[in-house]
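User: Please work through this fold.
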Amino acid sequence: MASALIARAAFPRALARRSIARSAAIQAVYKGTVNDPTTFPPPSRAHGSYHWSFERLLSASLVPLTVAAYATTGSNYPIVDGLLGVSLVMHSHIGFDACLVDYVHKRKFPKIAPIATWTLRATTVGVLIGVYQFNTNDIGLAELIAKVWAA
């Protein structure tokens, strides 16, 4: 009975020593507390105003490019058809990438975020190859849109 009392008295002390040792090790890894704000990455020109300006320019250029592709039909001007295909794919890629950056953040989903990003990149390359094949070996995007609207 006396040994059980001694073990009970010694156990909380050993547990307290372990938790102090663990908290010292954790403090070396983590900085601050849970209530401290997240640190932000250093500013980069590639992800700043130039990136934003390119997105807006691409979005704004889709309107006249779509009208030009429909007005000229793709078989007469394949360059316009190609530009429309690449612009649509890049516009979609930037939009989906923004969704991944906002909602599937690398800090919150350390394994899923890189997989999702690389899946998006591979899908974009596959779609670009498909659009190229469709524009060179088939009727092209502008003629497809004209046939769908006429149907």
Notes: The mean pLDDT is 80. The CA atoms of residues 89 and 128 lie 7 Å apart.
